Every structure is written in structure tokens, then in C-alpha cells.
Amino acid sequence: MSKEFGIADDICTRMRDWRHDIHANPETAFEEHRTAQLVADALMEMQIPVHRGLGGTGVVGTLKNGEGPTIALRADMDALDLQELGDRAHKSTRAGKMHGCGHDGHTTMLLGAAVHLARHRPFRGTVHFVFQPAEENEGGGRKMVEEGLFKLFPADAVYGMHNIPNISRGKFAIRTGIATAFLDTFEIVVTGSGCHAATPEKGIDSILVSADLVSALQGIVSRRIGAMDAAVVSVTQIHGGDTWNVVPEAVTLRGTVRTLDAEVQDQVEAAMKQVCAGVAQTHGAKIDLSYMRGYPGVINTPAETDAAAAAAASLVGAEQVQTDIKPAMGSEDFAFMLQERPGAYICIGAGETANDPPLHNPYYDFNDAILPLGAAYWVELVKQQLPAA
């Protein structure tokens, strides 16, 4: 039987079938019941013991082959609240939901690796296959950790992987240290005094206050944060008013903050509080800021980063593994697992052309051509990190 990157053809075929099935039936945060069942069934078919229910819909399969070290490999299962616009045979069958980030492929690559490892058992030790719910915004990784992931399934290290369309297929990328941004969100309620739009002088215009506040918030990064530090403050929602001729009593603003350093994160939050207080005083309005700390940054530990890069290089050559990429301002709740165990998060290239749709785009689709390479990466990592059988 021919093989691609050491993964047998029958496994490659199953991976494509699984991936298309999951893609056609997307499930969002904590609703991944069908996907979790597919994963559990596939693992049990391989006679890999399965644990269900961590994080609500999480699945953990454990493959033990004698005594030795233990590692955990993690994939995310959830889809996005996004209407798919691409035209393909495995297009989403669920309105307003799609796999726009490739978690269908991530799940499938880890399943493919599990099949190969269960079939050949080229190691001594234990591998935990962690299939996580709710990576998109809802912190399924945090919930699995809080519910005892590493108490129930101790691991010496934990590893994650994500496809990246703007990195060419056949390449990998990783960095030691901070790899993705700290993710915070905020909600600001601006309360003025409602009045007729024809006589705004009789009220306090919450729309005008909000406009000034949005402009002032943009000054935080450009004038409060050092030029060598990274931060983003984005207002992404503005809600207020119900008709054409009434100045509304209140306006609600929502948005996100991204930083690459905990000290800068503190600086941005403090500056936002100060700006809100100043704009409120200027206009005689009331401004209430709710600042919510979300995902921490993904911080790759040195030894595990080297291990991940070496596993990738064994498949594609060291020249195809970039180890000095810039941190991404996107965020990942794999960070919660890295707070508990050393580990590393690697990017696998999925791009074919410069015009490939990016992640979180309604025309995006995971590139099936990288399924064998992704599965082989997991296999090589296990073979490298655990003693040979």
C-alpha cells in the first residue's frame, strides 16, 4: 500500500471523509455533540479508551503502550457563527454556521494520527488525544483545564497545531515565547440625557459622546503605549437609538483589546478607564466601562518548541520550518493548557495561491492536501518525544 508522509492511503481516505462530514455538519461552542460522537466512535473503533464530557462536549482518547513518558496532543472541534458562501459538495448544511477556521481539519488530522499510532504503536509511553470544544471566543480550553484535564490525564507536555492559509503548503512556522496575543473584551455604556433631535441643547447627546470616546480610545495605542510594544484597541460594535428624531438616552460600545505582554495589557486597561472618565466629565455624561480579561497569550516553552520544529523538519526539511515568525495578534485558548504544562503551538502551512481565502472568511475551506502532513507531524512528534517500542 502506498503512503503519503508515512500515512497509509486508507487512513488518508478516512481523513478526507471525516473532514467533509464534520465540515457539512458544523457545530459551534459547547454544541459539538455530533462531532464529539464521531470522534469518540472513531477512537473506540481503534480500541482507544475514551473519556467524554470534559468541557461539556470534550473528548479525550488515551493510547498507552507500556511504561514511559506521557504527552498530550490537542485539536479543536468547534465551528463559527458564519454563513458559508463557497460552493462545494461538502458545504455546510446548517444556516449561519460553518467551519471557517479549519477545526474540522485539525480534528481530522489528530484522528488520522491516532489511527496510525494505534495500528503501529512505535513508542513506549502514553499519548492523550485531546479534542477540545469551544475554542472560538468561549474558552473551552480553560473549561477543560478547570474541570481537571491534567489531573485526570497527566502529561509531561502538551502540543497544538493550526492551519494557516497564508503560509505555503509544505511549510511550518513556530517561535519560542509569546506566539499569540492576550485577548480582552470590553463593553462601555454611555448614558446621556435623551431629547428631541431638533433641540439637542436640552439633552446630553450620547451619540456625540460615543463618537468622541471612540476617537479618544484610538489614541491609547498611538500615544500611551511605547512604539516598541504591541497593542490593538478595536471598537467593533455601536448600538444606540431607535428612530430618526430622538437623541437616545444611552449608547453601548463593545470591542476587543489585543496585547503581547501582561504589563502592556495592564497599561491599556488603566488608560481606557482614564479616557472614559475624562470624556464623561467633558460632556457631563455617565460612562461605565466593563473590561473583561479573556484568553492569555500562547507562550511556547523553549525545549518543546525545539521538539515541534524538529518533528516538522523531519518531514519537510529544516529549510521549510520557520522558527522566527512574528507573534500573531489573534488569540488561542490553547494558552490555558500551556499555563498548566510546558508545550508548543505550531502553524502548518495550507496555502496554494496568494488569493486563498483567509481564516474566518465565508469562502474559506480547509485544504485537504495537508491532511497527511498534519497527521504525520503528530506521529513524528510522538516518536521523537517517547522512547521507541
- Count every helix, treating DSSP H or I runs of 4 or more residues as helices: 10
* pLDDT < 50 stretches: none
Which shape, going by the Cα principal axes? elongated
Main sheet specs: 8 strands, mixed
In sequence order, what are the helices and strands, one letter per element?
EEHHEEEHEHHEEEEEHEEEHEEHEHEH
Q: Structural class of the secondary elements?
A: alpha+beta
Q: How much β-strand is present in the residues?
A: 25-35%
Looking at CATH, which topology of the largest domain would you report? Aminopeptidase
Structure in words:
This protein is α+β, with helices and mostly antiparallel strands. It has ten helices and 18 strands. An eight-stranded mixed sheet has the order 3-4-6-5-7-18-8-17, sandwiched between helices. A four-stranded antiparallel sheet has the order 12-14-10-15, covered by helices on one side. Strands 1-2 form a two-stranded antiparallel ribbon. Strand 1 and strand 2 form a beta hairpin. It starts with a strand and ends with a helix. The model has no long low-confidence stretch (mean pLDDT 97).
Descriptors:
alpha+beta, Aminopeptidase, eight-stranded mixed beta sheet, 18 strands, elongated
